[in-house]
C-alpha cells in the first residue's frame, strides 16, 4: 500500500494512493486521524477502512499539498556514514560501528515546503536518503526479525549546513537548522518493495543536474542491521523514523563545492517510492515577507 498525508479538496487526512489517484481515508473513518500514527499503532481496522474507501471521491494525487507523515515522532535517528564512497569523499575511515545522530522535529518539513537556507551560512547541502518508519516497537530486536518492525519506507533529504556541522566534533548544529529536512510525501509499505528496500536506485538532482546517483544495495548497514543496532541502546517505538545515510556526490565534496541556492528546487527520488521535491528559499527573504504582511 501507498499512503500520503496531505490536504486536498476533502480536507486534511491520510490518503490511500493508487497510481495518480488518492482517497481520503480520514473522511471514511475519523479514527484514522490526520497523520499516520493511528495506522502505525493499529488503532483502526485498516482493511475495513480501505474496503469502504468508495464513500469518498478519488482526488488527483497531484492536487494534494503534502504534510509530514508523522507529526511528532518520538525519535528521528540518522546514520551519518553508510555508503563507502561517501565515507571516502568526506575523508573518513570506514567505521566498524555506524555514525549516529538525531534530528529534532523543528528541522523537519514535508515535501513541497520551502527548504530554508539560513541567513548565517551559504553552505546548505543536500543528502538523498531512504527513511524507515517503525511500526512495531521493541528493544534488543534481532536482525533476522527486524524487518517485521517496519511500517513503511519514505524519502528524506538530510539538508546539512556544513559550516556549522564542522564547528565541533558533534554534528548536531549543522543537522538541525529549522526547515532543512524534507521528508515524504509517499510512505510505501514493505510488501511493495524488496526486502529491506534493498537494491533501489536513489538519486538527487536540481533540474537536469544529477547530484547523486547510487543504489540502496551500497549501504554498509542494511535496514535490518540498523534496526538491530539501534535497538541495542534505545527502545524503538511506533512512529520513530530512521534515516539510512546518503550516497556519494554531496555538495561539500565537489570541486568547486556545490551548495543549494535560493530559487532552485531540489529533488530526491527513490525507485519504487517516488520523488521528494522542495524549493530552496533564503531565510532573509522569508523574514522580509513576513515583516511586510
What does this structure look like?
GO terms for molecular function: isomerase activity; metal ion binding; ureidoglycolate lyase activity. InterPro entries: Fumarylacetoacetase-like_C, Fumarylacetoacetase_C_sf. One of its GO terms (biological process) is carboxylic acid metabolic process. It holds the Pfam family FAA_hydrolase. It is a single chain. The protein has helices at 25-28, 37-40, 46-51, 84-89, 162-165, 223-230, 283-292, and strands spanning 2-8, 11-18, 21-24, 59-60, 65-66, 76-79, 100-102, 108-110, 115-117, 124-125, 128-134, 150-157, 160-161, 181-183, 186-188, 201-206, 209-215, 241-243, 265-270, 274-282. The protein has 293 residues and is an alpha+beta fold. Strands 1, 2, 3, 4, 5 and 15 form a 6-stranded antiparallel β-sheet that branches. A 5-stranded mixed β-sheet has the order 7-6-18-11-12, with no helix packed on it. The model has no long low-confidence stretch (mean pLDDT 96).
Amino acid at each position: 500500500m501507498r499512503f500520503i498525508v496531505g490536504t486536498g479538496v476533502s480536507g486534511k487526512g491520510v490518503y490511500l494512493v493508487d497510481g495518480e489517484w488518492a482517497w481520503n481515508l480520514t473522511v471514511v473513518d475519523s479514527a484514522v486521524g490526520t497523520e499516520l500514527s493511528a495506522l502505525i499503532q493499529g488503532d483502526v481496522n485498516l482493511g475495513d477502512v480501505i474496503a469502504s474507501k468508495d464513500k469518498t471521491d478519488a482526488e488527483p494525487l497531484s492536487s494534494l499539498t503534502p504534510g509530514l507523515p508523522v507529526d511528532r515522532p518520538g525519535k528521528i535517528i540518522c546514520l551519518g556514514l553508510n555508503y563507502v564512497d561517501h565515507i571516502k569523499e568526506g575523508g573518513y575511515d570506514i567505521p566498524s560501528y555506524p555514525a549516529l545522530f538525531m534530528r529534532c522535529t523543528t528541522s523537519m518539513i514535508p515535501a513541497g515546503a520551502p527548504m530554508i537556507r539560513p541567513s548565517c551560512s551559504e553552505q546548505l547541502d543536500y543528502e538523498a536518503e531512504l527513511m524507515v518508519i517503525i511500526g512495531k516497537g521493541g528493544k534488543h530486536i534481532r536482525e533476522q526479525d527486524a524487518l517485521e518492525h517496519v511500517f513503511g519506507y519514505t524519502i528524506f533529504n538530510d539538508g546539512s549546513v556544513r559550516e556549522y556541522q564542522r564547528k565541533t566534533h558533534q554534528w548536531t548544529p549543522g543537522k538541525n537548522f529549522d526547515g532543512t529536512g524534507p521528508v515524504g510525501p509517499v510512505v510505501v509499505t514493505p510488501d511493495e518493495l524488496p526486502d529491506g528496500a534493498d537494491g533501489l536506485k536513489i538519486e538527487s538532482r536540481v533540474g537536469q543536474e544529477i547530484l547523486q546517483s547510487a543504489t540502496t544495495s551500497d549501504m554498509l548497514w542494511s535496514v535490518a542491521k540498523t534496526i538491530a543496532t539501534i535497538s541495542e541502546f534505545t527502545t524503538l517505538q511506533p512512529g520513530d523514523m530512521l534515516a539510512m545515510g546518503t550516497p556519494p556526490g554531496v555538495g561539500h565534496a565537489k570541486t568547486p563545492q556545490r551548495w543549494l541556492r535560493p530559487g532552485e528546487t531540489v529533488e530526491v527520488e527513490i525507485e519504487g517510492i517516488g520523488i521528494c521535491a522542495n524549493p530552496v528559499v533564503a531565510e532573509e527573504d522569508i523574514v522580509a515577507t513576513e515583516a511586510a504582511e
